Amino acid sequence: MIIQRDLFVNELLGKRWNGKVKIITGIRRCGKSFLLSTLYKDYLLKEGVMEDCFVELALDKKAHMKYRNPNELYSYVLRKTQNAEKRYYVFIDEIQLSYKVKNEEVDEKLVPEEDRDMLYTTFYDILNDLMARSNLDIYVTGSNSKMLSKDIVTNFRDRGTEIKVYPLSFKEFYPISGLEKADALEEYLTYGGMPLAVLEKDETEKRKYLKGLHKRVYIKDIVERYKLKDDEVLEALIDALSSAVGSLTNPHNLANAAGSLMKRSTSDNTIKNYLDYLEDAYLFVSAQRYDIKGKRYFENTLKYYSMDTGLRNAKLNFRQQERSHLMENMIFIELIRRGYSVDVGVVELTRVNEQGKKQQSQYEIDFIVNTGSEKIYIQSALNVDTETKKSQETFSLKNSGDFFRKIVITDGNAKPWTDEDGIMYMGVIPFLLEDVNII
Fold first, then answer.
1. C-alpha span between 156 and 127 (Å, rounded)
2. Is the dihedral of CA 51, 195, 97, 121 positive or negative?
3. What whole-number distance in Å separates Cα of residue 46 and Cα of residue 108?
4. End-to-end CA distance of the chain, in Å?
5. Rg of the chain (C-alpha set)
6. How buried is 87 (Cβ within 10 angstroms: 0-12 exposed, 13-18 middle, 19+ buried)?
7. Which of 60, 363, 366, 415 lies in the 20 to 30 Å Cα band around 53?
């Protein structure tokens, strides 16, 4: 079965021949290579592009290993695109595997210490050079944000554009699931949207595949890339983060949690570095806390969400499946998939306690969705089926002190409705299927 990813194909089509390197990023095994070399290529072939107008290299394949040398890669592309009268599509898969090569023609003694990086040729250099050729449209995929998305403007000199690919959304998953909406949601919350996991029908094999991704792909990649001595701390940190998705935390607390799991201590600084590695590998995404009334960010505490609930559950051996946390995780990833900037909201209120003393308290709004021109406040709640529960879930929304839109997303398939305070309520299924446009 072929899973269509029309959203990303259309994004690629909208950016072709724009004079920039198209950089397709995302967690490994989410379908980047398939998107480019199958779905996008098939569309172009049907449109009339000839097969010999494609130049394709996969740097993770043994047959293409020598092209990890940027000079070899450059020479290969030039050989394949000699006809200046033809327009070529250049697809390079897993570009982060390319290494830098020292330029022996330059006398190192003449180069100032602060400019020593310029002694090396990197894939950034050769892609910038190739982009100057008007008959080449260049696309690369990569699984490391530190080498790609964070450095696009700097290294591609404003000649790179990023397409972020995520695991399957519920909207992509539901039509191929063959299940009723409620059952499809259960399946999606448990096993997530990694394409090969979705296509695997045997639950035992599905679980085995998801567990194997952690050990054989993600952890192995990080250990090798950052030359870690072992994977014990990394494994413990992933377990701690997975157990606490949607919970406020910081490197110190995570160091304690990881240390407890390992039965030995680790430093806050080590954990901070490892958190960066996990975000660079797209395994987790962090959200900052924002003080709504004070209009400032809290520096020391964040929330971390797993890129995929199936991967999160597999890492914990499918033991801890608290529905409220999984639903919150799913909503957050859906919001950033749609391209929004999302923070965690905090409302600080001063109240008088039973002793008559003033006491400052903090109340959370799960998500602040920043659309550019306005904000939308979103609360994730399993239900609001009693007045007490409804009051608890909406207290922070009602005390935000502003008039931005406010939405409570509940479990299930409830149609949208609005209460007397102007707060909208809707089920998570219509939200995920985009039956209602919240923006």
1. 8
2. positive
3. 51
4. 33
5. 24
6. middle
7. 60
Find out whether 381 and 397 touch, Cβ atoms under 8 Å: no
pLDDT digits (tens, 9 = 90+) for 77-86: 999 999 999 9
For the beta carbon of residue 324, count every other beta carbon within 10 angstroms: 12
**What average pLDDT is seen over the chain?**
91
For residues 393 and 410, is the Cβ–Cβ distance under 8 A? no
53 DSSP 8-state letter: G
Query: Sorting pLDDT into bands at 50, 70 and 90, what band is 153?
Result: very low
Q: SS3 for 164?
A: strand
Collapsing DSSP to helix, strand or coil, 68 comes out as: helix
User: From CA 34, how far away is CA 195, in angstroms rounded?
Assistant: 10
What is the rounded distance in angstroms from the CA atom of residue 292 to the CA atom of residue 364? Answer: 10
* Greatest extent of the chain over all pairs of C-alpha atoms, in Å: 84
- CB within 8 Å of 10: residues ≥ 6 apart: none
On whether the CB atoms of residues 184 and 170 are closer than 8 A, the answer is yes
Question: Which of 6, 23, 280, 244 lies closest to 127, judged by CA?
Answer: 23
Instruction: Indicate the burial class of 270 (C-beta count within 10 angstroms; 0-12, 13-18, 19 or more).
Output: middle
Both tokens of residue 263?
């039965």
Residue in 207, 426, 194 with CA at minimum distance from that of residue 333: 194
Question: What amino acid occupies position 386?
Answer: T
pLDDT in tens, 402-428: 999 999 999 999 999 999 999 999 999
| Rounded distance between C-alpha atoms, residue 393 and residue 389, angstroms | 6
Going by C-alpha positions, the residue among 113, 53, 39, 57 that lies closest to residue 85 is 53
Rounded CA separation 218/234 (Å): 11
Sign of torsion, CA 194 94 279 13?
Answer: negative
